[in-house]
Each structure stands twice: as structure tokens, then as C-alpha cells.
Amino acid sequence: xxxxxxxxxxxxxxxxxxxxxxxxxxxxxxxxxxxxxxxxxxxxxxxxxxxxxxxxxxxxxxxxxxxxxxxxxxxxxxxxxxxxxxxxxxxxxxxxxxxxxxxxxxxxxxxxxxxxxxxxxxxxxxxxxxxxxxxxxxxxxxxxxxxxxxxxxxxxxxxxxxxxxxxxxxxxxxxxxxxxxxxxxxxxxxxxxxxxxxxxxxxxxxxxxxxxxxxxxxxxxxxxxx
Length: 226
Ligand code: SAM
What we know:
CATH superfamily of the largest domain: Tetrapyrrole methylase, N-terminal domain
CATH topology of the largest domain: Cobalt-precorrin-4 Transmethylase, domain 1
Order of helices and strands: EHEHEHEHEHEHEHEEHE
Strand content: 15-25%
Structural class: alpha/beta
Number of strands: 10
Shape: elongated
Bound molecules: S-adenosylmethionine
Number of helices: 8
């Protein structure tokens, strides 16, 4: 029976690899990854010589058929993304679903847990994380205002991913819609310029507008529960 592993990898600091992730990446026949150059850096660090194949949201059906053929031959495959946990705002869920559709219970789909920017940000937030709403990346235009209204209405902690290009726009919207609720921004987690800052949207706007060099890198926004 072929095994298909979904493997979490570091979100910045390459030391954040589990022993199991390293062992399995060495043992499998092929590693499916978003960008082979990004994954190569990780594999090189751990002297993993397993071949790689790119797989992403827009991969052609012929690529999926190739993956199926390998699995029919009994080959074991691993899926990683550029960083963090595959399928969480990353490619992979369609592939996993197609694999289940094709092989049913004749394939073992196994998860090798690892870092995720979402969970890291939530655990560093200090906000209640027993229950939370995760919104992935917010839409750029259509539906954006509706989502901010939803964030304002929910009593739950809300987390989402944001890019440096839109963080100021997003803080302006949060200022308008959620007012005084506490917000935490986790930037560049596990990396050299890692920082976690919190305050109201208005306070965070002042902070970033006063420190434009900090409007760089990767961001997770967490809005406190109420
Ligand atoms: N699947 C990944 C995970 O589990 O962490 C997330 C992939 S998503 C395409 C990438 C987004 O995650 C970035 O745009 C950013 O919002 C967030 N992110 C990833 N790494 C991060 C980091 N080191 N610090 C803060 N946010 C990060």
C-alpha cells in the first residue's frame, strides 16, 4: 500500500524541523513541493537527497495522473509547501481529495505535524484560542467589507494572513470596524526580524506608519475575542 505523507516544514527558521519529518523526507521516493528551489534549501540543510517534483494549485491533470501512477506502483510520496503546513492557505487539499477519490482506503494518508504561522501567531497572541475563526487571506475587493463586518460581530478570536502591501489598508479597516478591540500582529515569526506587536488598530497604524521599515515580510493578524 502506497503512503502519502503531508509534512509541515519551518515557517522561516530551518531548525524548526521535526526528527520524524527529516526521516520521512529521506525515506520517501518523491517529495512534491510548491517551488523546488525553496524546498531544495531545506533538503540540503538536512542532507536529504530525495528527488522533488513541483506541485501547485494550477498543476495540470497530467501531473496528477503521474502522481497516481507512482502510487499505483507502491511508491511513497511526501507533500510539503514552501513553508508551514501544506493545505492551510497552501496547495494540497485538492490533491489529497483526488487521492482519496482515486484510491479510497487503499492508500494511507498520513500527517507529519509541523509549524504553521497561524498556530504560532495564535499561541503568541495571549488571546483566547480555545475557539477561533481563521479567514486565510482576506479578499482584495469583493466581499472584503462584509468580512470586516463579520469580524466586528463575532465574539471569537479571529486570525488571518496578510501581505505587507495591504497591512496598512487592513489596519485602517479594522480601525473603522472593530474600534478598540485588541489586535496582535505577528511579523516574520521565527526569523531575524521577528516581532509581535499589539494594541488597538489605531495604535498599530501609528506604529507602522512611524516605522515604515517594518512594513515588510510576512504577517499574521489576530483580533482578540470580546
Ligand atoms: N501553510 C502555511 C502555514 O501553515 O504557515 C501558510 C501559507 S500562506 C501561503 C503564507 C502566509 O502565511 C504569509 O503570507 C503570511 O501571512 C503567513 N506567514 C508565513 N510565514 C510567516 C512568518 N514566518 N511570520 C508571519 N507570518 C507568516
